[in-house]
């Protein structure tokens, strides 16, 4: 009777924890903002004798502009534009909201920033009032050129819409920092360091060749053709990197896909998925700790490395012909595998710790 009692006890626990409450957010008089999806309730610990099937929650992120279907009777515009003479050690810093930031590069020793400010409302006077409360705060302090979108205090009656779009031309060697909220960022190929912070928007970037880039991406989706190195922090953000040399960071409630990986990656991941389609045979180190995140790693021919894979409530999937397992420890809920992938001489190491997610090695 003991096994049946334990199974019934686990079933009762699961039934009690099943309901999930969803909380809404009251509408305000300001712009309509997307509401972050609630974090899923934690799964109860499995009990002996009960079958456990865990599926990572999927997060669909869609960013909408304020009042996307509304037609306004009046629209007012104004433009800020300035040119800065620079050398390669100067940095550009942009802080914006409710609009896009588009960064282009050219072969001139100057930075040009153009900002288009747009206000829409139900009447000419209201649109003018709203436009008058928008301004660009600009400064140059030493090696840093800073521009920030500012909304003066006040309230325009009735529904309104605002949009502030930056168009930038700069040398590719200069560093740039962009923080954008409720808007997209587009980056041309850059050799200077890129610090990107985006919330409720999408990212599209070409080659980021600096080894010390910093990307913090929240609520949206994006892609980069190449990231030489740096930190990648994503949350509720589906990211695709075509080619990367070295990365470290974390991923939460996100799907992260890397086309080709050159040397190393260190990531902490929760609730999502992680896939690398082609890992170079010159790889040095891979370290991943994940929870509710299936991991799929495909290695190029002639790749060799030592591995340590620990899975809890998951499986390690690999063709036995590709590996030599030197140590294997298993119990009811977990397994630890140590061994060698490939036969070539290499000091590379791969360490994976996964909870509630499978780990797959392919070639």
TrEMBL record:
Signal peptide, first to last residue: 1-22
Keywords of the record: Signal
Protein name per the record: DUF4097 domain-containing protein
Organism: Pontibacter burrus
């Amino acid at each position: 009777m003991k096994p049946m009692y334990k199974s019934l006890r686990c079933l009762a626990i699961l039934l009690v924890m099943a309901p999930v409450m969803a909380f809404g957010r009251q509408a305000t008089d300001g712009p309509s903002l997307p509401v972050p999806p609630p974090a899923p309730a934690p799964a109860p610990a499995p009990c002996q004798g009960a079958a456990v099937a865990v599926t990572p929650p999927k997060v669909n992120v869609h960013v909408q502009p304020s009042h996307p279907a509304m037609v306004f009777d009046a629209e007012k515009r104004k433009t800020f534009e300035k040119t800065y003479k620079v050398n390669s050690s100067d940095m550009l810093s942009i802080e914006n909201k409710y609009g896009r930031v588009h960064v282009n590069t050219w072969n001139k020793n100057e930075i040009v920033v153009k900002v288009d400010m747009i206000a829409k409302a139900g009447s000419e006077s209201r649109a003018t009032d709203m436009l008058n409360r928008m301004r660009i705060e600009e400064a140059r302090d030493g090696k840093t050129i800073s521009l920030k979108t500012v909304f003066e205090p006040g309230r325009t009656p009735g529904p309104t819409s605002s949009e502030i779009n930056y168009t930038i031309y700069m040398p590719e060697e200069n560093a740039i920092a962009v923080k954008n909220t409720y808007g997209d960022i587009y980056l041309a190929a850059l050799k200077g360091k890129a610090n990107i912070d985006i919330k409720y928007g999408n990212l599209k970037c070409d080659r980021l060749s600096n080894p010390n880039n910093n990307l913090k991406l929240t609520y949206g989706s994006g892609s980069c053709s190449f990231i030489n190195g740096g930190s990648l922090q994503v949350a509720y953000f589906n990211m695709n990197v075509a080619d990367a040399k070295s990365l470290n960071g974390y991923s939460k409630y996100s799907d992260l896909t890397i086309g080709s990986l050159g040397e190393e990656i260190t990531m902490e991941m929760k609730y999502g998925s992680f896939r690398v389609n082609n890992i170079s045979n010159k790889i040095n180190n891979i370290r991943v700790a994940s929870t509710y995140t299936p991991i799929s790693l495909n290695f190029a021919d002639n790749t060799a490395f030592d591995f340590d894979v620990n899975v809890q409530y998951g499986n390690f999937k690999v063709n036995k012909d590709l590996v030599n397992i030197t140590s294997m420890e298993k119990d009811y809920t977990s397994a630890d595998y140590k061994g060698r992938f490939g036969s070539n001489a290499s000091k590379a190491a791969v360490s994976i710790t996964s909870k509630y997610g499978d780990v797959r090695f392919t070639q």
